[in-house]
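Hi there. Long-time user, first ticket. I'm pasting a complex I've been working with (about 570 residues overall). I'd like to know whether the download I got is complete or cut off, because the file seemed smaller than I expected. Thanks.
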Amino acid sequence: MGLQPILKVTNVSHRFGSLLAVNNVSLYIETGEMVGLIGPNGAGKTTLFNIITGLYKPHSGRVVFKGEDITGWLPHKICRLGMSRTFQVTRAFNEMTVEDAVRVGAYNKSKEETVRAKVDDIVAFCELTDIRTRKCGDLGLAQLRKVELARALATDPELLLLDEAGAGLNPTELAAFVRMVRRINTERRVTLCAVEHVMQMVMGLCQRIVVLDSGEEIATGTPPRDQQQSARD
Amino acid sequence: MAQAAGPLWEEIVKRKQRSSKTVVMLVSLSLTLLLPLALGSNQYNMALATTVLMFAAVSTAWNIIGGIGRQLDLTAGAYLGLGAFTTGILLIRWNITPWLGMIVGGIVAAAFAALVGWPLFRFKVKEVWYALSSSALVEVLRVIFLMWDKIGGPVERYLPYYSFSLYHLRFSSYIPFYYLMLAMLLIALFVNYRIINVRLGYSLLALGEDEDAAEVLGVNAHACKMRALMIYAFLVGVIGGIYAYMYGFIHPNFFSVTMSIEVAILGIVGGIGITYGPLIAAVLLVSARELLRANLGGGMEGLYLVLYGTVLILIALFRPRGLATLLHRTSRRLTSH
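Hi, the file is complete. Here it is re-exported in full:
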């Protein structure tokens, strides 16, 4: 295929006290692809994301991003290298306006002189123009999910991790959201990895799916063609 | 047509708000500049006005770490004392002019801030824990300076007296200090305004909302908090230098926990994160407190504190987001259509 692995996770384990949350998990993501990470509650998906983005230090194992060993790096350095994420429970900057929240992310790669243009670009791309001056605390869930996506996208990531970004959306909102996520992949050339419970989103979006259970990888494969097709329609 | 009218109208309202804001600012600035003409003959009133400005300047500086950075900081007394001692000792020992001493005092305060801030932010000490450790530092400094004979000690060290010397920053009037404190207040306001419009401000606000979320968006939490703390410490250090010369002596009691708490109260009561909030709180509360003390202090000692406390409780009940929101309310009503 000629694709390069952008992220390689090897034999990562993490425990909370006596609970082994992630057990010897390995994962690779190739440049440009959309990977789905599924599994029941407590399977360790979010913990794995926290390890990859630097919020947790793994007890063993390595995380290699763009050929660089980033195990134990601080989150902002990892972001600087080109990785960002959204959160399962939306973590909105309630007192900030939508454009200011996006601006926080935009500073990752933009200087003071260019940051406004970057914000305008992202706000337009994520269809936030009419709510850009509203406070995040006043927004509904569907809008908040978009804002989270926007501010992560503003950091100019090469790899974007989506942690149940579609949770709580109704079918109409979800369809619009999936369309936007796909555009991020195709138009902005961002590699995506999505933890998801909403099967419609996983099957519709992802080219490859990894299944985690009780902290271990139990399966990996491609979604059935017909499901992918029907979700796209 | 209707679509175009919306943003246009908003723009007009915004411009009106901006211009009325400018008018309010210019009027209050010129009144402040002219105040000594009215009070100048009464040195006691001048001292009060200068004290009000000093509290306004320190708590406006506090807004950088406490309001924008959302750290419940109680170290103002430490930087004030360090600035005062540095500036004072430089003049007493080596006859170095306080104009230079002030800057050195600010740098010493910022260096101390870096020293204490590094571990506090490294281990993510927050909220009450941050408040407790930071106020403890002030008391530790006070005790150190009380026992450190060469620099401090329990006896006041008086600065050389001159009735008018620019080099020694000694005057027989409070008026020059009034203008110096006013200058520091304006500088503190300007620094606040600068910060909220650049990366540091956006980063600090995001960190105050959700630290993890900010960090995965590329915000370096440790560096941002350190920078905010050091800028604040520098400003308060410089103010501390002026403070020492206004009173004409230095003493370890300048490292005051009470004062640190008061600065934070003004910042909170004024409205957390609102640039001019601490200023409004200082003008209203410090002058009210001093006037109450002056008028009631003789007959009923301590009564002014009861009244002052009552006012604080009332504000907490009816304006929990700060005194500055009183202005928000009215300006919104004036411009609503």
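A couple of notes from our side: Chain A has a mean pLDDT of 86. The two ends of chain A are 27 Å apart (CA to CA).
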